[in-house]
Structure formats: structure tokens, C-alpha cells
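Box 3.1 A note on notation
Throughout this textbook, protein chains are presented in two layers. The first layer is the amino acid sequence; the second is a C-alpha cell string describing backbone geometry. Keep the layers aligned when reading.
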Amino acid sequence: MEKKLYTLLVYSENVPGILSQVSAVFTRQQVNIESINASAFSVSGIHKYTITAWSYEEEIKKITKLIERKIDVVKADYYLDSELFIHEIAIYKIATPALMANPEVSRVIRRSGARMLEVNPTYTTVQVAGLTDDVQDLYNKLNAFGCLLQYSRSGRVAVTRSTEEPLAEFLHKNKDI
């Protein structure tokens, strides 16, 4: 059995400290969080946390159950990449002199589907949006050219491939609660 990258979708009431409580579950289980993205959800008063972690299935099941026990958590589920639509965004700051000196840098940027946000004599900012592998691939290529000055990437944004929204289905089943 090998570790796999799991994505947890956690829905909670919008109360202070809930993110700390959720991350504490991972800490107690000694599982490192790879990325986390928190945002308001389409249901008023609910927030959605998209958390990725490398783990074993039994371990991630346990973590999911522990998170769902938190009073302010409405629902939590875990998924493999094949069960989700996934997107990330990254911004790369590269040295403009290196960009101008090597036409291959510009070709790599164009082939990746990235777009230039700003170009000045010192640096150029480039943005790419896509799958985790696409974001990492562009990083690797730019880093290999030695032109990368800064790099930042978002946490994962994900929705299930299911036709039903997991939280809406849960709320419908439990409307009397």
C-alpha cells in the first residue's frame, strides 16, 4: 500500500478558529498538509476548505471522520484527483534580461498557455492557470533557465465530478436537523 494525494473538501460554518481546529487534526495524526485553500461557499454562512495531503486511505478516512466531529463543520469528504475537477494558479517573476537574451524562455511561456502580466526592464511577471502538473512543469522549465526570481502558487481549487453538490445533498437529507 502506498501513499496517495488526497483532496479533502470541508464545509463549515463561518466562525473564527475553525481552520485552526481542522489543521490540528492533521497535526495530531502527523500528516502534513500540502496545500490549503479557504473561501466562502455558495451557501450563505458556509465556507469551503480544499486541503491536499499525501496519506494512506485508512488514515485519510480517520482524519475526515475526526474533522466531521468538529461542532462547526457541516460536512467533510475526501477524494482522489480522478474524482475532481482541479485548478491552480501560479505567478512567476522572471528576470527580463534573461527573457530577452534567450528566445527559448519566451517559447516555453507561450507553449504553457501562460500570459505575461507585466514586463519592465528588471522583471517580467507571468501567470499560468491549470492542473498542478502544468503549474509545476512551467516552474521546472523556468528554473532550469536560471531566470526565476520569485514564484507563488495558489492552493488547489476543486469541485467534484458528481452531478450533485455534496453539501446540497447532505443538507437536503438532513433538513430537519
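The CA atoms of residues 15 and 82 lie 31 Å apart. The mean pLDDT is 91.
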